[in-house]
Amino acid sequence: MKIPAPKQMRDFYPEDMALRNHIEAAWRNASKRAGFQEWDCPIVETLELYKRKSGDEIVDQLYSVSTRGGNDQFAIRPEMTPSLARMVAARQGALPRPVKWFCIARMCRHEQAQRGRLREFFQWNADVLGVAGPIADAEVISVAIDALVELGLSAADVEVRFNSRTLLGALLTGLGLPEERHPAVFAIADKRGKATDEELAKLYAGLGLDDQTTARIRRLLDLSSLDEVKRFVAHEKVPGCEAALAGLDELVSLLADLGKGDFCRFDMGIVRGLAYYTGPVFEMFDRAGKLRAVCGGGRYDRLLELMGGQPMPACGFGMGDVVLGELLKDRNLLPSFRLGLDYQLIPLDDERLSDVIRLTGRIRAAGRSADFAHKAGGLGKAFKKASENGVGKVVLVGGDEWSRGCLKIKDMTTGVESEVPLDRFTP
Amino acid sequence: MKIPAPKQMRDFYPEDMALRNHIEAAWRNASKRAGFQEWDCPIVETLELYKRKSGDEIVDQLYSVSTRGGNDQFAIRPEMTPSLARMVAARQGALPRPVKWFCIARMCRHEQAQRGRLREFFQWNADVLGVAGPIADAEVISVAIDALVELGLSAADVEVRFNSRTLLGALLTGLGLPEERHPAVFAIADKRGKATDEELAKLYAGLGLDDQTTARIRRLLDLSSLDEVKRFVAHEKVPGCEAALAGLDELVSLLADLGKGDFCRFDMGIVRGLAYYTGPVFEMFDRAGKLRAVCGGGRYDRLLELMGGQPMPACGFGMGDVVLGELLKDRNLLPSFRLGLDYQLIPLDDERLSDVIRLTGRIRAAGRSADFAHKAGGLGKAFKKASENGVGKVVLVGGDEWSRGCLKIKDMTTGVESEVPLDRFTP
Questions:
Q1: pTM (2 d.p.)
Q2: For A354, which residue in chain B has the nearest alpha carbon?
Q3: Which of A218, B71, B296, B390 could bond B340 through an S-S bridge, CB–CB 3.0 to 4.6 Å?
Q4: ipTM above 0.90, yes or no
Q5: CB pairs under 8 A between A and B
Q6: Please, what's the b/e burial string for B293-303 (b: 16 or more CB within 10 A of its CB; e: otherwise)?
Q7: What's the rounded Cα separation, in Å, for the pair B413 and B159?
């Protein structure tokens, strides 16, 4: 009896692996071009680490891990940020600043599957720690965009929408909401566009907010340019917004300097659900509006302290492979899957197999890729397969050429056939 | 309070990640040169999959995984072969033969740690399915060696020792042991060199073998050349060894054809502990004899059936990153860890920061790597850091050069400084 794979997780057959490697290469290249260094942590962490950052609720989404005879409670990592904070905190004094780190990490969340969401996925994180100003936020947004550009996407395909938790906080305070109530409002505001109007109204009512305050919050979230916000702030005389607005103006200017102006726009509706954000927040969407967010992140200046480290400003993002794969498919940007061997060797008679294998060893030792047919015959089929597999050159070993001490080589790109003396063949 | 990492697992800080990437690149390059295709499976599989292959005992070593409200029992993968068999069985009719697949996989085993063994590690697997003859065994042994050669190791550093389960089986049968008792003997024989003589004697006694049979088994395992085995077989008139011996002769000849003769030798002491091997088996060791096996594998022709597939011959190996890392360290073959940026930009006054950022964006968009100092000043320290980080060129933005519309560029390899007009600068 066959045994099934775990539900809502993926097997990567070679053609699936080719897409994953294609995406991961773009992530890695963009990170390196921007001077980020790669890091990683174990696939499991203590349950305590996730509870510390996200509270007990997170446990419902975790894959819990235990060992026979072991007392420790672990979980498969559902995100990388707590591990990042743990590792930076452990060597905080010794690490050169700024800390610019990226990772490409497998993770698991036990959620209901939907389009663009699976229970196991790969996520690219890029974070800058140790920089308080918006230059760090601009850097992480820019590197996220760079990877998408490498994958063939443009500002016509994707858009980064950003906001600021500091600004949102000042505005909510201006509406008479004390700071301790903000996280609950952020969590509901983040559902805008995902939940219906009715569901949202119910959630706000659940907070005990009067209809007028709810209406003002919802009007606020519709503001979609910094000019609109500035007019609103001036008109309503909301105090404490200046620094946040100046920071966002600077962010806009830095993104333009980095050549990413066309990709980015302010949107008060971008809130992010998690409590831990403290400054700019952003999400990236396909402009067609068909998919979940491609990427999301923001500033989290207080996490290092929470994880037992010294205070340290920080910002970063996560970008998953599932939505991105869907987007590439939608835009017809999937890579072609070909083995791409340099040489395919074929014996023309079975007595030559040993020579074929020796030649294969020589080609590989010279750093080129080579494979060989295990027996003679079926030339037509062998050439067809070589062509499909993207083989560069087919080498025929045997026949008249061999008796003259030569190989017959066909260049599969040009179609040209040539006879090359064995002792002069250099792969 | 700081939260610790899970015990006997590794955090990968950038310098650790550099070593891991160095090893993985050699594994991947060797695989591709030999025409293997990459695959992967989920990090968890059903418990049933591992029990099916290895019996209930395996459960002690597993990291068990469960979800709230989920009934399925999972485990973090402790090896890849059961998943390989599951995935090949699922598409057995459609896959082109031979199936030559490799993977580079994270896995976890809850074992006691010792030198070269951790609870989380990365393992390279390369397998050939669909080929019954020793050419497939030679291919997997050869690709394992190729990766080590790429890492700088030679036949003076490592050695592959091989044997055959078929031969061993025939010899044990010749000693009067029926086939159903062989797996228990293999499991004990595999402990040779790891357990003391006394412990081994006790284990053999536990099987109920008389002293004479035990002594003969142990003498058998000391045979260290095929010639010795052939003399033994002829002298003792052991039946049923011919095919296995001919297969091993062919394997020796194929390994020589592939240029790997110097690396390989027969050793009757190589048994492998697992029950599922059916033909040639092999392990790779450092010649200094200081470390655990670098790599181990063999033929497992009956696994596909066990996993619900059609019968299909198969062979392959696993090579872990931990022992290999120790070996590279012992041989002084660790890679140097440098960021290796193409350009480091430095503003000479803070008013030029925006220009620096624009230039950084241009360089990255041209596909080169670049980072920048966030403020002016500290030139001496900046050059020192650039030199340590392996920066190619330092670009100074500001000062007199800037007022002439130029950049000052220092090539860190040659030490040559030049002045380049901004509009003629091409990264």
A1: 0.96
A2: B257
A3: B390
A4: yes
A5: 249
A6: bbbbbbbbbeb
A7: 39
Which residue type sits at B104?
I
Closest Cα to residue A102, out of A12, A146, A13, A40? A40
Q: Which two tokens stand for residue B18?
A: 């550099």
B295 strand-pairing partners: B284, B319
Residue with tokens 């198969």, as numbered in its chain: B314
**Residue A84 in tokens:** 């990042």
Question: Of the candidates B1, B106, B309, which has its C-beta nearest A43's C-beta?
Answer: B106
Q: Using the beta-carbon criterion (under 8 Å), do A76 and B60 form an inter-chain contact?
A: no
Peptide bond into A98 cis (omega under 30): yes
CB A77 within 8 A of CB B120: no
Structure tokens at B417: 């400084």
- Give the strand pairing for B280-286 and B264-266: unpaired
Going residue by residue through chain B (427 aa), what tens digit of pLDDT does each one get? 788 889 999 999 999 999 999 999 999 999 999 999 999 999 999 999 998 887 776 788 999 999 987 778 999 999 999 999 999 999 999 999 999 999 999 999 998 877 778 999 999 999 999 999 999 999 999 999 999 999 999 999 999 999 999 999 999 999 899 999 999 999 899 888 888 988 998 999 898 888 898 999 988 999 989 999 999 999 989 999 999 999 999 999 999 999 999 999 999 999 998 778 999 999 999 999 989 999 999 999 999 999 999 999 999 999 999 999 999 999 999 998 887 899 999 999 999 999 999 999 999 999 999 999 998 988 999 999 999 889 999 999 999 999 999 999 999 999 999 999 999 999 9
Q: Mind telling me how many Å the CA of A182 is from chain B's nearest CA?
A: 26
Q: Supply B51's token pair.
A: 């029990």
Amino acid present at A210:
D
A382 to A44, A344, A374, A387, B291: CA distances (angstroms): 46, 9, 11, 9, 44
Question: What is the Cα–Cα distance from A206 to A209, expressed in whole angstroms?
Answer: 8
Strands B393-397 and B343-347: parallel
Q: What angle do CA A389, A392, A393 make, to 5 degrees?
A: 115
Which residues are bridge partners to B46 per DSSP? Answer: B74
Q: What is the C-alpha to C-alpha distance for residues A282 and A34, in angstroms, rounded to an integer?
A: 19
What's the half-sphere exposure (Cβ side, CA atoms, 13 Å) at B119? 22
Measuring CA to CA, how many Å separate B156 from each of A203, A285, B150, B160? 71, 56, 14, 12
Subunit contact B307:A3, Cβ cutoff 8 A: yes
Are β-strands A120-129 and A99-108 bridged in parallel, bridged antiparallel, or unpaired?
A: antiparallel
Say which DSSP state A125 is in: E
